[in-house]
Write a structure and sequence with these properties.
mainly beta; single chain; disordered N terminus; 3 helices; 16-stranded antiparallel beta sheet; 386 residues; 18 strands
Length: 386
């Protein structure tokens, strides 16, 4: 374990922005010998040693980790991830802690991302506020829309992608483990420097979209960031109406259903079924897509896109020793323009494995290697994929 901490220390020393709060000292009145302060390396080692042991009280338990990393999509870069846990009513020991996470990435491939996400649990879990905000400027690739275009390697085209998005859900608890409430979305996309503009087939390169809708949730998970048992069902229905100022109105139907359960000592089986279908004049950048660090890991994020997609993943999570764990998963996905045109001969397979280090209590730093159809991906992130 100490070797692992030393390795992490070498990676993150330049990026640690906070240090451990020193223990209260009791000095003798007649003592004149100053206490020797620990060096930087010792303080960083202690920081990570204690990062998953701090009690979660009224104040936020916040920690930061970062350093160099490599991703098959964005190449070499610097990544910073931070996690915070807190209780809005510490006297209520039954309510799950709220969480917030922040991430920043900057790479040699002109890939810049900044994101904030979290879930705020109000006292006694009467209400929940879930939010996600992101900004990105990326040199990336595009293959078109639809399975035939996206699976054709000759269609690969480089372009610059600038985007910002925000999503918020406010929910009331209307029953035991049942939550319902409104949601709001915002999306801005701007594409430029197109290598093969014909692939866009006249679709708008710059769009603003605003949406409203409703979100339903059923949640019995033991915690929100690294569940070991429970069920989570989320159903969102959103509308980007024309009267809201949307030049390209459309609606989105999205369902996520996940189950978590123990298998043997230290092992958790996690299963997730997800689908997202859009109707109307959906802009190319807001269509359903396959790939990335959370879904169908191993596929280039955004390579496969269409009005609808469905995917399933089964993941085995095994605690190994102290704060270390490993995972392995298998999955599959389907891309389609409408539900009636799902083609099972176009199923995309997925599998992979990863390493987990418990950065904070129930908050894991994860490193995943995923494999898809004729491609693979390497990912570094915080919290479980689902």
């Amino acid at each position: 374990m100490r070797k692992l901490i030393l390795i992490l220390t070498a990676l993150v020393a330049p990026y640690v922005l906070a240090a451990q709060t020193p223990q209260d000292s009791v000095a003798a009145v007649d003592s004149v010998v100053p206490e020797k302060k620990p060096g930087l390396i010792k303080r960083i080692i202690d920081y990570f040693d204690e990062s998953n042991k701090k009690p979660i009280g009224r104040k936020m338990d916040f920690s930061l980790i970062g350093g160099p990393y490599y991703s098959s999509d964005s190449k070499f870069g610097i990544g910073l991830v931070a996690a915070g846990l807190y209780n809005t009513f510490p006297e209520d020991t039954l309510t799950k802690p709220s969480n917030i996470s922040l991430s920043f990435k900057a790479t040699t491939a002109a890939h810049f991302e900044l994101g904030v996400s979290g879930e705020h649990i109000f006292p006694h879990d009467r209400y929940r506020l879930t939010y996600e905000v992101s900004f990105s400027s990326i040199r990336t690739r595009y293959w078109g829309v639809g399975y035939d275009m996206c699976s054709n390697d000759d269609n690969e085209s480089k372009y610059r992608y600038l985007a910002s998005s925000a999503e918020a859900h406010f929910a009331w608890r209307i029953g035991r483990n049942i939550y319902l409430g409104p949601m709001m979305t915002f999306n801005y996309v701007n594409a430029g420097d197109l290598q093969k503009p014909e692939l866009w087939e006249g679709d708008p390169l710059r769009t603003f979209n605003y949406g409203i809708g409703a979100s339903f949730r059923f949640d019995t998970r033991d915690n929100l960031t690294a569940p070991k048992h429970g069920v989570f069902v989320r159903f969102d229905q959103s509308f980007d109406f024309k009267w809201m100022g949307n030049k390209y109105p459309f609606k989105v139907n999205e369902l996520t259903a996940a189950w978590y359960g123990p298998l043997w000592k230290g092992a958790t089986l996690a299963t997730q079924l997800h689908w997202r279908v859009t109707w109307g004049d959906t802009p190319w950048a807001l269509m359903s897509s396959i790939g990335g660090s959370s879904s169908m890991r191993g596929y280039f994020e955004g390579r496969y896109r269409d009005k609808g997609e469905a995917d399933i993943c089964v993941e085995l999570r095994q605690h190994v020793w102290r704060r270390n764990g490993v995972v392995a998963w298998v999955g599959a996905a389907s891309l389609f323009p409408k539900l009636s045109e799902i083609n099972f001969h176009e199923i995309l397979p997925n599998f992979g494995f990863g390493y987990r280090w418990e950065f904070k209590k129930n908050v894991n730093v994860r490193v995943d290697v995923g494999f898809g159809k004729h491609q693979s991906g390497f990912f570094f992130n915080i919290n479980e994929a689902f």
